[in-house]
Amino acid sequence: MQLLLEHEHSFINGTSYQTTNTFTVLNPANQNVVKVVSSVDEKGSQSALHGAQQALRQLRRTSAIQRAEVLKKWYALILSHEQALAELMVSEQGKPLHEAIGEVRYAASFVDWFAQEATRSYGEVIPAQDGKHQLMTIKEAVGVVLGVTPWNFPLAMITRKVAPAYAAGCSFILKPSEETPLSAIALAKLANQAGMEAGALQVLLTQEPAALIAKYCQHTAVRKLTFTGSTTVGRILLAQSAATVKRTSMELGGNAPFIVYKTANIKSAVSGLMTAKFRNNGQACVAANRVLVEQSCMVPFIEELTEATKRLRVGEGMDPATDLGPLITLKAKNKVMALVEAALGQGAKLHYKGEELGGLFMPPIILTDVLPEMDIARQEIFGPVVTVMSFVDEQQSVTLANNVEEGLAAYFYSQDVAQIHRVSRVLEYGMIGINEGMISNSATPFGGIKQSGLGREGAKQGLDEYLEVKYLSQKFD
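User: That's the sequence. What structure does it adopt?
Assistant: Structure tokens below.
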């Protein structure tokens, strides 16, 4: 891990950029200082934009095959540093080591996928309406991209943006979360080693993210914004980008329903819920937020869920026995606890609560008798709290599931084939897991509808997000 910790400054034009203004990265498990990093200044942000523009001109002269080769080398380097990257992630984000290793592999899978997709940005020949024209389209890089990524998946959220951008021939300015900047620097360092052009991937560390992002959003040289984060912040960034009519990709908040029908295999449903709810301690936009259970199977489901939840171990990420690490900050923990207290005050029942460890650790909690109008059912929890509510029939389950502003991910369990087809068609979500609690995959389009965002990441659609279609009309003499 020491090799990857050598850089504690922004990465601009292929090298470290140091300033005297610093902030501290803390280990959420024990609040120890992981690293003191420097915050980029005005000169650095201008240099990064200039370097990105120069790199864009250079990338326009490269072929898709050349860029694919660089991505293949980056992919290999990420995997060869798997353990170090995972340990670095545990130190600044807190997730268990086995989950961190899984994220390294998941992050690398996007680089591998888009190394292949780089050579598939096809144009087309369009049949002319007369015999005097040749009509065609080609695809070209959007231009300089600004990416803003969160702390909950500090590697994967970067690679699934940077890899398709580079495959398309775009240069990229990355503003990672100030909670987890070290993972971003490590990735940039490995990309540089893989042969990415200086300026093709810049990483700007800052303790004043709002001002830095606003400046880039308003700059005409930045042609695209890609953001993963809350719906509230996403609305602000969309407004800031409107004046320059930027292309945007927005992966925003979720409020995922997890529906269990009476025909479901209860053991499988609980197993899927443990993944969909407790992965990364519930700190995921696709985490199951509302568990909807048909009344007739509520008792066996709650029994199975309680036994599975009791087996979860809370602790520091480097402990191999740990299932749930700490929450990211005290503010995050206080928000989750406030939602739980409000729900109890509104009539929900505390069915189970694990052992308190203090600090930023939070025990797993099961709440029953939750109602759809409660705050905890209307807001993204982002913590290890299972909220259970009941329904009487399929129509009510769909109504409950859809009656929120968000539309990112949904899950449901049923062995009734006809029901599977009916429910799949009427759930208002961009992604649906059917008898499956883990839906993320580099080969599939990740993204939501309604107020959960715009655009898709991963799959062939992920490459198109960074390409413009240019139409060519040639007339023959």
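The first strand starts at residue 10 and ends at 12.
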